[in-house]
Fold this sequence. Notes:
- There is one protein chain.
- The protein is of the alpha+beta class.
- It folds into 3 domains: about 60 residues, CATH 2.40.50.140; about 70 residues, 5' to 3' exonuclease, C-terminal subdomain (DNA polymerase, domain 1); about 55 residues, Ubiquitin-associated (UBA) domain (Helicase, Ruva Protein, domain 3, Orthogonal Bundle), CATH 1.10.8.
- It is about 55% helix and about 20% strand.
- Strands 1-2-3-5-4 form a 5-stranded mixed barrel.
- Helix 4 crosses helix 6.
- It is elongated and about 65 Å long.
- The N and C termini lie far apart (about 50 Å).
Amino acid sequence: MITYVKGKLAEKNPANVIIETNGIGYYIRISLQTFSKIPEGESVQLYTYLSVKEDSHTLFGFYEKTEREIFKELISVSGIGPSTAITMLSSLETKQIQQAIATGDVATIKSIKGIGIKTAQRVILDLKDKILKTYDINEDLLTTDNTIKNEALSALEVLGFTSKNTEKVIQKLLMEDPDLTLEKIIKQALKIL
């Protein structure tokens, strides 16, 4: 397996880059997350994963090792191929995916284009334990987040907002600032809703 490619950045697009190393140009598919982190300078290094199929060999590149590891975890789930995994990593940041899986947040994963409810549930079912162990995510913090999230949801439902919309808004607010108090979550959610 090719672990990383280091060389001169010959071309950069939102979906791929070409890195020239010793006279060879490597075409590497990337996520939007990696695209935004690649500097405009001469030299670049991407951690890679080589996907081998009957009809193609595709190199996928990642700016950080953690993103590559999450990619590998995602493609291990039945029904998720490399292209879908790259779409997931383009739609959400690595930490957001980790947190959504660890908290069992089906709505966040389902919000990604091409991911249905069954696939989202399968991702959570297959990867939750691995994510919690590998990335040392504290389950106590997750339960606290869920408690605050549930309390905020109940309060907003009492005020007449539907749970589908409010859940997405609350989840987004908690992703941006996990230390928000219940009152601040409700106030900010009311501004958005």
